[in-house]
Amino acid sequence: MKTSYSEINTYQRCPTKYAYAYIDRLQRKKRNVNLFNGINAHGMLQAYFIARRNDLTPEECWLAVEEYTENILGDSQAYAFDEEMVDAEAEVALIYSVIKRYIDQYSEEWTILHVEEEFWVQLGDNIVTFTPDLVVRDRAGKVWPVDHKTTSGSVETGIPFGDMQSLLYYAGVKAIYPETVGFLFNRLRKKLPTQPKLVKSGKRRVASLKNIDTTYEILRDFLKAEAPDLLNDPEHQQRLAELRDGGDRFFWTEAVYVNDSTISSILDDVSFVLNSLDESGGRGEWPRHLLESRGYKDCRKCEFMRLCQGEMLGWDTGQIIIEDYEPRDAKNPYESEE
Questions:
Q1: Residue whose C-alpha is closest to residue 186's, from 148, 137, 153
Q2: How far apart are CA 44 and CA 67, in angstroms?
């Protein structure tokens, strides 16, 4: 059996969701704007790193990103979103600006080995496929799979130990490159830093100083140019120190080293899930995981919620499918939730 990581992840979250997506081959007609933005961010970075791997000039690398962006903008009117009043062109322009800011300050001296290329791990009679965003070699000669993670909120810096996806990346890449030592999370926030401004009345100060959502460099440069006297003000000095010590919460690259015992454990877990998936298919049973929390696996965030509830309530699910869903198309960029 050949299975993608996306299939394993979906089955773990809910076997019924797996059946809708991979047995019935359904997908939502309307798109979630966060998924839309995440895919476009990945696409722009993919265009950039492919150009880098091909030894193009910095200008040519950026032209590749612009070409990708123009293609998305050309199709932007065709997108329908779950949320009302979503301006697809504005969303693409925002992600373009975020990626441009990241690339403009990008300084990693990596040798690009692979960009969005499929790897696989064989577990008994099963093959698990997955596609790392990047595989790179650093200046010390060590190899790392890299996973771009986009987020709407502030970039968190804690290590997500036990991330099955990244550990599978490591196992597959290490089979080809024995010098692989771990994996990298390249985290990007889908928001630009707030540009500071001075209050229009009252005490001379930066507006919303205590919680301004910006970076140390942007606030410092603004004060130097517009209000150098405030560089000596205790409140402004404190906020500058907080931003400086907190790091850039809009971008963050984090290395996670892996040992063999960790990989052995995760591959055992994957084998267990694969056996469960195979048994479900054999019996034709896809039980629901009904989750009411507000976490990542919350049913309310599932694109099949209406269909699932309709089945349980005895509704005309055929009509629901006609109204809300369409055939899952392998060429559709929204097929993968990664």
A1: 148
A2: 9
DSSP 285-321: --------SSSTT-GGG-TTHHHHHHHHHT--HHHHH
What percent of the chain is helix, strand and coil (3-state, nearest 5)? 50, 15, 35
Assess contact for 278 and 272: CB atoms under 8 A: no
How far separated are the first and last CA of the chain, in Å rounded?
21
pLDDT tens for each residue of 155-211: 665 555 557 888 888 989 999 999 999 999 888 888 899 999 999 888 899 999 999
Per-residue tokens: 33: 């704007």
User: Edge-to-edge strands of the sheet including 134-137?
Assistant: 111-115, 134-137, 143-151, 182-189, 251-257
Structure tokens at 124: 């008994």
What is the residue-wise DSSP string for 264-283? HHHHHHHHHHHHHHHHHHHH
Say if residues 97 and 90 touch (Cβ distance below 8 Å). no
Best CA proximity match to 132, nearest among 162, 101, 163: 163
Helical axes 5-13 vs 164-176, angle rounded to 10°: 160
pTM of the model: 0.83
Give the sheet arrangement for strand 2-4, strand by strand: 2-4, 126-130, 119-123
| Amino acid at position 115, single letter | V
Two structure tokens written together for 6: 């996306």
Paired tokens of 220: 């410092």
What dihedral angle (degrees, nearest 10) is formed by the CA atoms of 138, 141, 143, 149? -10
Helices (H), 19-106: 33-53, 58-75, 88-104
Closest CA to 42 of 80, 61, 69, 79: 69
